[in-house]
Design a protein that fits this description.
globular; six-stranded antiparallel beta sheet; 17 strands; alpha+beta; 286 residues
Length: 286
């Protein structure tokens, strides 16, 4: 088994997790490809099977992401080209993408080796036209346009499949995938939908019109937006990658022809994750 381990940074709290990972992988004589950010880990030299992830090819079986959901999104951006399944070990808080807890690492590796897992294909959004500052024009969570700090609200003229929907007067607009429904869209009041749902969610941020509400549309839809900003510039964000645009331009957002493979284990369930991560039904009264 060939496994890559990715993290955006190396932090002291990663050490016990990495030790658990290597212990579990060594049991099966796995070859390990290590992201350069982890090369500063002093114990890495003890493992002769380690290679640099930058040299990896499509022969990899899995990419294991150590971190939170932000690290998971970054790993997708960097290594989508390898077309292998991603697994997330949660070092953050909520962890809807990185949802394997550190204490379950050994069991997770056992399940991988024994084939006791599922691979979910997650939809990506695609942004057109190509913008040089955004090297990876695909989003696993969301594509967002929003005003810059301390600037006035913006107007977002929106079409769906060539038909005018509305002009949003708001701080911004989020177009999210089902995967991203538990991210920024949820924080802005958008609905939570199952990852297997075949739809997109359009969620306004602090809309000036109180009757405007989030909208769910089929993922076969093509969304076109044009932003007008009184201060002339605004932000465009594709997952965690942002760029400032200083002119109105038509942006097209639609389902990408790519998808991401995410490993889920049989004991994992989206509804259990919602209940546990968001503490649904928890009674905190004394």
């Amino acid at each position: 088994m060939d496994v890559a381990i990715y993290s955006r940074t190396f932090e002291p709290q990663h050490e016990p997790v990495l030790r658990s990972l290597f212990k579990a992988l060594s049991k099966y004589n796995a070859s390990v490809w290590l992201h350069p950010t982890l090369a500063s880990w002093k114990d890495a030299k003890k493992f002769t099977s380690i290679k640099l992830l930058e040299q990896a090819t499509a022969t990899l079986d899995f990419i294991i992401v150590v971190g939170g959901d932000g690290s998971f999104l970054q790993a997708v951006c960097e290594f989508d080209r390898l077309k292998v399944p991603f697994i997330g070990i949660n070092m953050g808080r909520l962890g809807f993408l990185a949802d394997v807890s550190p204490e379950n690492i050994g069991m997770a590796i056992d399940n991988l080796v024994n084939g006791e897992y599922m691979v979910e294909r997650r939809t990506l959004l695609n942004l057109l036209p190509h913008i040089d500052e955004i090297a990876y024009p695909h989003a696993l969570n969301e594509i967002t346009v929003h005003k810059r700090e301390r600037s006035q609200m913006i107007t977002i003229h929106t079409q769906i499949d060539g038909r005018f929907l509305t002009s949003y007067w708001a701080d911004g607009l989020i177009i999210a995938t089902p995967t991203g429904s538990t991210a920024y869209s949820m924080s802005a009041g958008g609905p939570i939908v199952s990852p297997s749902s075949k739809n997109f969610i359009i969620t306004p941020i602090a809309s000036h019109a109180l009757t405007v509400r989030p909208l769910i549309i089929p993922d076969s839809s093509e969304i076109k937006i044009v932003v007008e900003a009184r201060d002339s510039d605004y932000m465009l964000t594709v997952d965690s990658h942002s760029v400032v645009l200083d002119r109105p331009m038509e942006l097209t957002i639609k389902k990408s022809d790519r998808s991401i493979q995410v490993v889920k284990f049989h004991e994992q369930n989206f509804f259990d994750t919602l209940r546990n991560k968001l503490m649904w039904g928890a009674d905190k009264r004394n």
